[in-house]
Structures are given as C-alpha cells and as structure tokens.
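*** Protein under study ***
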Amino acid sequence: MPAVEIRRATENDAHDLARVHVQAWKWAYRGLMPDSLLDGLDVERRAAGWKRMIHEGLVPQPHLAVIGSTVAGFSHAATSGDDDADPQVGEVTALYLAEEFVGTGVGRRLWEAALDQLRETGHTALSVWVLDSNHRGRNFYERMGMVPDGATKQELIGDSTLTEVRYRSSFRDAD
C-alpha cells in the first residue's frame, strides 16, 4: 500500500474533496445512474458546498486520504439520520476514492478512520446506505463486517428513482 496520510479536511481542502467526489461518482456509478446526471456534476459547485458545510460546522469534517500531495479519497461519518435509529447509531455517509486507488487499501484506511470517529463520539453501532446495484460497494461493506438489515429506500436522483439498501453492524462486528 502506498504511504497514506489520513487527516481531517479543512475548508482549504474543499476543491480537492469535491474533485474526488465528482470523479468517484463518475467512475463508480457509471451504468448505475443516468449518464446525463453524472456528466452534469460540477466540481466548483460541489466545492462551494463542502467549503460552506465545513466552515459552518454543518457536518463533521470528512477524513482525507493523502498520498504525497494527492487527495486519493475521503470518508464522512455522522450520527445516523434514519427515523428508526437511536442516537447511538452512527452512519458512514460517504466513502469515495479516485479510481486509481481502488484495491490499494486506501478505502479500508478511510473506513477505519470513520469508525474511529464514530466510536470516539459515543456511537455503538453503525449503518451505511448503498445503491442496491452497486455490487463493488456492497462487497466492500460485507468484507468490513456489515450485513444488510432488510431496510430499503427510494432516492430520486435527477430524473431517476434509485433503490438503496442499508447495511448495519455493531462495532465489534465491523473491525
């Protein structure tokens, strides 16, 4: 595995964060979401959103994986927003990599950083939502000890309705 620095993102990282976010959606979701939606993603708009959310403290700061001077990926975690989740349930809300870093161990390091953050903030269980058709993502979460719990939801993204499935685990199962 390449030498990876895992650190919290700051406002100054918003553009790199957005670049990885957009690139990751384009390679990971091609064929799972409409091309028009993926082709219309805008790094500058996403960067402005990340900068505002980090600046205003609207979300916990994401974790970045940095290799040399390159942001290779990021993860984000917070308390679950699911209606049926108690306050001890954390959620990994994002885990994205630049395509060239898939399979290098960077994703696992970002996953572990998100879990550490959730543990440190008192969460005892975790969840993650993933597109039902995202087999790569589902396989990763299963390797990390996550299990589908039967919950599904429909998300309207662009003009498409997509189905997501929820994976859950206690921390002792997800290490």
